Amino acid sequence: MPETEPTWQKSTHSxxxxxxxxxxxxxxGTILLRExxxxxxxxxxxxxxLAALIRTLGIGQRQNHxxx
Length: 68
Prior knowledge:
Elements: E1 9-10, E2 21-25, E3 31-35, E4 38-45, H1 47-57
Antiparallel strand pairs: 1-2, 2-3, 3-4
């Protein structure tokens, strides 16, 4: 059975009026990633690999810092 068109969701870490990361999940469990400036380039990954990337980048663990 062929996959339907992915439903893209904007990452909650993307700021307004900036380059945005979009995610979609296929029924097979494959995760698709694309960037708003180049939507034809799509990266594919799996849930474990994406979780490892997020852990490595420390997303969600960063504190807002103001620098003088």
